Amino acid sequence: MTAEIKARDPGEKIFWIALLLLFTKLILLPFAQNTDPDAVLRVLGSGEWKNHPAWITSGAWAPFHFYLNGIFLMLWNHPIYMPVVLNMLLSSLTLFPFYYFTRREFDKRGAFIATIFLAICPVLFRNSLLPLSETPYLLFMVLTMNLISKGTREEKKYHFLLAGLSITIASGFRYEAWFMIVLLGIVILLLKKWKGFFLFGSVAVLFPVLWMFQSHWATGNSLNSFQWAFHAMNNKEVLGMESYLRRTWFFPFSWMIALGPPAAFVTAREMIRCYRRENRSSHLAIWTLPFWAVLLFFFYNDMRGSLLLQHRFSGTLIIFSLPFFALYFKDYSSKKTRNAWAFGILTVGLSFAWN
Hints:
mainly alpha
């Protein structure tokens, strides 16, 4: 952040922010420790695919992460560093569609600051140092949001086709994207882009339909992957009062850690302000719906005991909410710039306290 955010478009600075973010993570690469068993298994699976490339017809996890890692392992066969460096690169690239989406839909000046908060977000920063599928999934999710925004604003139908392609790729990394297809389809309908909805939907369902068909052909059960995921995510915990309380606040608390308490408060306040009488029919109110729907979806599943309480799942909440932080800077003042500095320092500093 600069001491004074100039009125001119700061978009060219995003390149340098992304480059600095990537450079910082590369410095930290020797100190990154892979403590997640899913990450280890994904690297091992990617190594097997590299040795025997083939189209994956069924499995517990969606296959695109194995393809991506496997291809890059062919370029540099280092199973410890290569998948992590790849995720570092993808996390840096995520800043670009996030900035342009936020600038177009919310505020140009605030978009720059919100993008910096995405870069320093403790949860996403940590995720990018692990060879997990959340990082490429979030890149394609943010890209989808930006393409829907462009299609809506510029009235160009091919943007909806590209958005459908982007989210169907995301659905090949994480099953959460299947739910996002429905949510973003509803957003397009509420924005009254009927042709865009059909163009988006016709492409978005390509991978889910293909994967269910392949699963049925290979196992006799179209939803075999989902049933495995349900049992794997269910930690068989005996749910008592303590467990219910912990599950009630976990994901809201995780979201607050990701943004930092001051930025989280401002973001929530700006989202609620979108429901004022004069704003109810605006695009801002419509773009709040994915965040609340995902939060309720997480709440429903973790109260059932079928969702692990892991901070890495909060990435979807972050990308759907953080753009609203940009609205705080719509009425710009030097005081708000100073607040942004203070908010950012607290976000990073308190992440060590939570840990």
